[in-house]
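STRUCTURE:
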């Protein structure tokens, strides 16, 4: 058997996965960590053409909020340990700068941060599903809203993430100023 025969016999990997929201079903790239809500935001709010990933301080702020919420929800008994651990690990991955290319919504959008919050929820949920050994989009096992966004409101998450992002940026600036001095 040649290499070509082996490749030809290998099962094909689908290019997309189907996800559902209140507006219906949509195909999302199978490799994407983001989901249908992010897809719709990208389509509906192309304001600056600059992706959220261009501001990793804000992305890290979102991940820090999600990490704190997962820990709190576990402590309160609202989130089981298996899901909480996976969400925490996914948040740590985002904080470490991994998955940066998955934050694809426009950095400026309507909705007071809803698109950014959902982009973070979906990326973290799908990374957590992967950690648990489940396919992306298997939201019956771990859901972006029901688990990652548990006990949260975008009206709290986004302003807090902006403040944390500002702190992260200021720390870098202060370190650079000290070095310059």
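SEQUENCE:
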């Amino acid at each position: 058997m040649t290499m070509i025969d082996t490749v030809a016999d290998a099962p094909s990997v689908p290019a997309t996965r189907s996800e559902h929201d209140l507006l219906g079903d949509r195909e999302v790239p199978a490799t994407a960590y983001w989901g249908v809500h992010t897809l719709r935001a990208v389509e509906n709010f192309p304001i600056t053409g600059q992706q959220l990933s261009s501001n990793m301080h804000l992305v890290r702020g979102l991940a820090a909020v999600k990490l704190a919420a997962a820990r709190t929800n576990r402590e309160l008994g609202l989130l089981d340990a298996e899901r909480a651990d996976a969400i925490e690990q996914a948040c740590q991955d985002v904080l470490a700068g991994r998955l940066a290319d998955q934050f694809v919504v426009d950095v400026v959008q309507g909705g007071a941060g809803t698109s950014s919050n959902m982009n973070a929820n979906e990326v973290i949920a799908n990374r957590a599903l992967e950690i648990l050994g489940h396919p992306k989009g298997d939201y019956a096992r771990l859901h972006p809203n029901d688990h990652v966004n548990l006990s949260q409101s975008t009206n709290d998450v986004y302003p807090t993430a902006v403040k944390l992002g500002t702190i992260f940026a200021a720390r870098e600036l202060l370190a650079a100023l000290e070095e310059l001095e």
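REMARK: DSSP finds seven helices and two strands in the chain.
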